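From the shared-data thread, chain only:
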Amino acid sequence: MNVDIYGYFAAILTTAAFLPQLIKTLKTKKADDVSLITLIMFITGVLSWIIYGYEISSTPILIANFITLILNLMILISKLYFSKNHSY
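Structure, as tokens:
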């Protein structure tokens, strides 16, 4: 059995875990409960995973982290946008 199957399985689960947060943020137009510091730290970590995945030529790591990066950037942008538009 190819060991990459575990990488793809982990990639699907950990990446998909951010979909509910993104959907909730877009539906409610609120992201007050999402920590800005956590998002920034997580995005920095994901960028590090992308560099690592590239250096070791790991397709599962690259795919998962590119998608995770996009989802988390969308959450970050939503948080900043909705916070700016709702601060009176």
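The chain has a mean pLDDT of 89.
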